[in-house]
Amino acid sequence: QVPLMESGGGSVQAGGSLNLSCTAPTHLYMWICVAWFLQAPVQEREAVASIYTGGGATYYSDYVKGRFTISQRNTQKTVSLQMNTLNTEDTAMYYCASRFVQNCLPPQDEADFNHWGQGPRVTISS
């Protein structure tokens, strides 16, 4: 119900990097499990990274593991996704989302998440 604020979308050449940020309002109580979902054209939306803000545990899909890093700021309700070694297959809409749960174990089902960002587009050119 509460929109999340995203920033950092844009275009970059293959092999480059981008950083996405997701910030929740102070009154949001669902900031426990935060995930980044990728949606490519004509593809289903799927989670690529998630973090349990209560303890800091992180999880990644095999596709992005080793290239993407999800992290949180200690003093703010902000979660970032650092994306390195980008390739053209990473071109997609990226949505951050949050839910209240006592863990953040994958798989992440988008239907379980209550709050979403606007999904800025990331475009990787060859």
Describe this structure in words.
There is one protein chain. With 126 residues, the chain is mostly beta strands. It is 0% helix and 44% strand. It is built from no helices and 11 strands. Strands 2, 4, 5, 6, 9, 10 and 11 form a 7-stranded mixed sheet that branches. A 4-stranded antiparallel sheet has the order 1-3-8-7, with no helix packed on it. It is globular and about 40 Å long.
Q: Would you spell out the secondary-structure blueprint of this structure?
A:
Elements: E1 5-7, E2 10-13, E3 18-23, E4 33-39, E5 46-52, E6 58-60, E7 68-72, E8 78-83, E9 92-99, E10 115-116, E11 121-125
Parallel strand pairs: 2-11
Antiparallel strand pairs: 1-3, 3-8, 4-5, 4-9, 5-6, 7-8, 9-10, 9-11
Labels describing this entry:
seven-stranded mixed beta sheet, mainly beta, 126 residues, four-stranded antiparallel beta sheet, 11 strands, single chain
Q: Concise description?
A:
Helix content is 0%, strand content 44%. It has strands at residues 5-7, 10-13, 18-23, 33-39, 46-52, 58-60, 68-72, 78-83, 92-99, 115-116, 121-125.
Main sheet, how many strands, which sense, barrel? Answer: 7 strands, mixed
Q: Between the first and last Cα atoms, what is the distance in angstroms?
A: 38 Å
Low-pLDDT residue spans: none
Shape, per Cα inertia axes? globular
Number of helices: 0
Order of helices and strands: EEEEEEEEEEE
The averaged pLDDT comes out at 92
Beta-strand segment tally:
11
Query: Structural class from helices and strands?
Result: mainly beta
The helix content is under 10%
Percent of residues in beta strands: 35-45%
Query: What is the gyration radius calculated from CA atoms?
Result: 13 Å
